[in-house]
Amino acid sequence: MPTLGKNVEYAIHSLVYLIDNPEGITITVRDLANFQNISESYLAKAFTKLKKAGVVRSNIGVKGGYKLARSASEITFLDIVLAVEGEISFFECNEIRGNCVLLDKENLPWKKGQYCAIHLAMIETENKIKESLQEKNLQWVHDTIRRQYGQEMIDKTQNWFQTNVFDSK
Predict the structure, then answer these.
(1) Cβ(99)–Cβ(86) under 8 Å?
(2) Would you say which domain of life the source belongs to (predicted)?
(3) For 123-128, what is the mean pLDDT?
């Protein structure tokens, strides 16, 4: 089964850290990559795509960096996946039903353009996956982290960014 790339994971984790930014403060890709000990170049590519899709906004210059373009509750996992990976498809129909030796290729028993049961099932599955991605958003992740790890983890994260990023701007 096809998998979403690590850029999606990098993007979602990194976007969560933009939620609690003080007003007017941005965070650079370098800061996000350093905090998570992940590849800055991978993350930079993801953020370029996120900006193009309107998920984040950027400021350039000495005080440059990124911030969310919309509220965390308005940015869904599907928005992020589509921004980073592009349109996704989990099934590619090769129309092999038409290869059956029992069929008269000139008089196929289905209408042109009619999907077979397998293709319909795969479309339905893909739609359910997309619906699930649409239901989850950055605010949900933030709230889940708070429940799982407690406010202390949120506070430690904010303290790290305050000390290493915000105070230096």
Answers:
(1) no
(2) Bacteria
(3) 93
